[in-house]
Design goal:
Chain lengths: 110, 468
């Protein structure tokens, strides 16, 4: 039986990006930087409703107006800025540096 | 003549580029020595080191302790201090001792004095204290001159007064005032990362936009390279742009890696607010000179009439005790949320008083919420924070919680000898004082010259100095 006829699984952001990172921008804000491997991946992501500012706001459970999105075609990059759920290091915070908050984006199919 | 006087008097932009060596972006975690030596061989005009950040959380600002290990801070300071003094290069260190509060500035200066004695160094030391008293912040609050940065609530007057330390980020305006004093070594309390590297270039008349852009990129040393590294980074600045070159031959500053770094830890990729104005990067150009170096130009600068002040303040929340344990029983894992709540209810009856509990269940969504279907049924790591006014109460709550969780009965329980796997005992550990940020605000119309105290003195560890 041939198996290479099966459609490949749809490409996720984990597949399409070379860097997908999160980090605090100060203790109250989080930034998400997506650097794509190629122009096609960038173009697909930039046009995708799944990566609009409101969609990312829903993913991170913040109000739509609280997410800023910047498209950087010359860098094949998309950047988001959004509020952190709690101020960094306040008791109960689980990620003081905000360095592991990129995970929900990894599986998104743009 | 001191190093800063010599540079400010003798260097002219038309004589050739200004070489700025970023020796460390996190002084105290081990400056790679080979790259530092390669940088020193390039005869830099300025050596800059960033020593702190707000990133490590409120503990360091609150407590006044350094985040980096003291022995490593000593090693790194000794490396840059001996090199700078021997070659007569101004050395600028910002955000002394992690958060840049008075105890951290004092500890850094004390270490510098010890090194001077041990190595027989003599130099002119200028310090900038960045501490802000509660009163002017309260006045700013009452006058409506306190603006939150991001979703930070406005503090109450009481909360401001409860901050154990409040610091302001001094910018180029303050470091320039300090560097107008005859200076070999400048150590600033909390300072803008960029001011450490931009101030002397700005004083020498290089375009402010270029100085700030250069500073923004090299303040993390070779983090802007591909692959990223922690080695010293050299910027060669002229009136039209600057060239970036890592002193690690294997870390390459490429147009893509440098441009990407301009986005790092930054909410807006094109407009970066600094105390004295806004850095505008819409026109920035990045061009490869070869496989290792990138030339950067085009940044613009929109000056602000009056410099703004970003202030940071942390207050004590209580004393923290943490319980560490593993859980592996699948029935227990499936019911863990309910069981933790049941145990908390029981412990609150046994241990009265005001204590708070924050469970972090690793493997079940501690870092990012996880749907129940994806939660680990193999094992989970449990960290429970207990915070109370006294360490005794936090420890008591943690200890009683541990024992009640260990022997908690639940439906379908097989593991009647105990619910928890301890990697070691005691499994509850005192974790010191817990703090939180109360202030992360812009203070408008702050009296900068009065807030930032500049002091200057001669440090003489030379044999002749010791005899005096």
């Amino acid at each position: 039986m041939r198996t290479d006829d099966a459609a490949p699984p749809p490409a996720t952001l984990a597949d399409l990006t070379q860097v997908l990172r999160s980090k605090n921008a100060g203790p109250t804000l989080l930034t998400l930087d997506l650097f794509f491997k190629d122009a096609a991946g960038y173009a697909r992501a930039a046009a995708s409703p799944a990566l609009s500012a409101p969609a990312v706001a829903a993913l991170y459970q913040v109000a739509p107006a609280q997410v800023q999105r910047h498209l950087l075609p010359s860098l094949l990059a998309i950047k988001y800025a959004l509020p952190r759920r709690v101020c960094a290091g306040t008791p109960g915070d689980g990620d003081v540096y905000g360095a592991q908050q990129h995970v929900p984006l990894l599986g998104i199919v743009p | 003549m001191t190093a800063s006087e010599r540079l400010l008097l003798q260097h002219r932009a038309q004589d050739g580029p200004l070489r700025i060596l970023a020796a460390s972006g996190q002084l105290g975690y081990g400056i790679p020595e080979a790259a530092l030596q390669r940088g020193l061989a390039r005869k830099p005009h300025v050596i800059g080191c960033d020593m702190g950040s707000i990133d490590p959380g409120p503990y360091y600002l609150g407590s006044g302790e350094m985040a980096a290990p003291a022995a490593m801070v000593y090693r790194d300071l000794e490396l840059v201090l001996t090199a700078a003094v021997a070659q007569g290069i101004p050395l600028i260190i910002g955000s002394a001792g992690t958060a840049g509060a008075r105890p951290q500035l004092d500890a850094t200066v004390a270490m510098v004095r010890t090194i001077a004695q041990a190595r027989g160094l003599r130099f002119r030391l200028t310090t900038v204290a960045s501490d802000v008293a509660a009163e002017p912040v309260v006045q700013a609050l009452l006058a409506g001159r306190l603006t939150p940065i991001g979703p930070m609530p406005l503090p109450s007057e009481v909360e401001i007064r409860h901050c154990s330390h409040i610091v302001g980020q001094c910018g180029t305006e303050t470091l320039a005032r300090a560097l107008r004093e005859p200076t070999d070594v400048l150590i600033a309390g909390r300072a803008c990362d960029t001011a450490v590297f931009a101030t002397l270039p700005e004083m020498l008349g290089y375009p402010v936009g270029l100085c700030q852009h250069m500073a923004k990129i090299i303040e993390c040393t070779s983090l802007c390279c591909q692959p990223s590294a922690r080695d010293a980074m050299l910027a060669e600045l002229d009136m039209d742009g600057f060239t970036l070159e890592s002193m690690n031959p294997l870390a390459h500053a490429t147009p893509a890696s440098v441009a990407a770094h301009a986005l790092y830890e930054q909410a807006d990729p094109f407009e970066v607010d600094e105390p004295t104005g806004t850095l505008l990067l819409q026109q920035a150009q990045y061009q490869a000179l070869d496989a290792h170096r990138t030339r950067v130009s085009g940044a613009q600068w929109r000056p602000r009439g009056q410099a703004t002040l970003k202030i940071e303040g942390a207050a004590r929340v209580g004393e923290r005790c943490v319980l560490l344990a593993g859980v592996a029983d699948p029935t227990l894992l499936a019911e863990l949320d309910n069981i933790l709540q049941a145990v908390e209810t029981r412990v609150r009856q046994l241990v009265p008083g005001d204590w708070a509990l924050y469970p972090h269940v690793y493997g079940q969504g501690a870092v990012w919420p996880l749907p129940p279907a994806q939660q680990s049924r193999h094992e989970a790591g449990l960290i429970v924070e207990f915070i109370a006014h006294s360490a005794d109460l936090a420890r008591t709550a943690a200890g009683v919680f541990k024992q009640n969780l260990l022997h908690h009965g639940f439906a379908g329980r097989h593991c009647s000898a105990g619910n928890l796997a301890f990697a070691f005992t005691p499994s509850e550990l005192n974790a010191g004082t817990a703090y939180r940020f109360v202030l992360y605000h812009v203070m408008q119309a702050a009296p900068l010259a009065a807030l930032f105290q500049v002091e200057t003195c001669t440090v003489d560890g030379s044999p002749s100095g010791a005899r005096q």
